[in-house]
Prior knowledge:
149 residues, globular, UDP-N-acetylmuramoyl-L-alanine:D-glutamate ligase, alpha/beta, single chain
Amino acid sequence: xxARSEFAEVEAELYGRGFTRMxxxxxxxxxxxxxxxxxxxxxxxxxxxxxxxxxSTARMIDSLLSAHGLHTGRYTSPHLETVRExxxxxxxxxxxxxxxxVYREVEPVAAILDARNxxxxxxxxxxxxxxFAAFADAPVDVAVVGGGR
Length: 149
């Protein structure tokens, strides 16, 4: 299987989780992150919340941190063309190979948790875990995380 077709398969699996389905409960994503070893605790984070401007603000903060020599991870949504845009390392969306590799680490755990719960993890839950795991694997000095879809 080519890297491109493998990425397309992973992207389809993610969208199969219900791209627009929202569940306002942190319990399941917290459980997923716990089983993954809490990758979000491997680096400091700047969390952005609010109605508008999170992505623009995240990009500016990312640029400032990078200009000071820090390796950054940025997680924002929504994406325009590819889900990879949501997860950036040093200002650049993760490549297909890295995205697939991190997905292959996270997905088996997500599948086990899905089987144990009434509702499966959402697209947003899994992409959040992917971002945190990718940042820990990189590793980054700091993450900039936009809250919300």
